[in-house]
Amino acid sequence: MLNAADGFSIKRYELQAGVYYRWRIQSDDLEEYKLLAPDFFRESWIDQVVVEGLEVKPMGLHAVEFDQSGEMDVWFVTIRPGTYRYYIEGLEREGFSGEFVVK
After folding, report:
1. Which end of the chain is less crowded, N or C, counting CB atoms within 10 A of the terminal residue's CB?
2. Phi and psi angles of residue 93, each rounded to the nearest 5 degrees, phi first
3. pLDDT tens digits, residue range 40-75?
4. Strands 97-102, 12-15: parallel, antiparallel or unpaired by DSSP?
5. SS (H, E, C) 34-99
6. Is residue 30 scored above 80 in pLDDT?
7. Are 35 and 92 in contact (CB under 8 A)?
8. Cβ atoms within 10 Å of 7's Cβ, excluding its own
9. CATH number of domain containing 83
């Protein structure tokens, strides 16, 4: 969950390489958020992004953006172990920063 008062509700995910995951992201509509995870997305196979039942099958992903409240699912397989940041640019100190730890 992204919300203006608290930032990200979960700040650390521990994942296994080679496993298929769904990352559900929800926004509160109090701010416009551009969520970046460029290194994580580059080291994962992004199967699809689903927004309100509409599917996008990207060849790659750099960021996702919320212009209003809503929910989006990013379906992916982690490829390479490591620690990868995700964040809202410019709001990292306000709680909009976290990490994926892929083992």
Report:
1. C
2. -75, -15
3. 999 999 999 998 888 889 888 888 888 777 889 999
4. parallel
5. EEECHHHHHCEEEEEEEECCEEECCCCCCEEEECCCEEEEEEEEECCCEEEEEEECCCHHHCCEEE
6. no
7. no
8. 19
9. 2.60.40.420
Q: What is the DSSP letter of 32?
A: -
Q: Which domain holds residue 39?
A: 2-102
Nearest Cα to Cα of residue 98 among 35, 5, 48: 35
Number of domains in the chain: 1
Q: What is the pLDDT of residue 70?
A: 80
Lookup: tokens for 62: 């750099």
Mean pLDDT over each residue of the chain, to the nearest integer: 89
Taking the mean position of all CA atoms in its chain, how far away is CA 94? 17
Question: Using CA atoms in the order 96, 38, 58, 35, what is the torsion angle rounded to 10 degrees?
Answer: 10
Distances (CA, A) of 68 to 30, 72, 99: 8, 12, 24
33 half-sphere exposure, CB direction, 13 A CA radius? 32
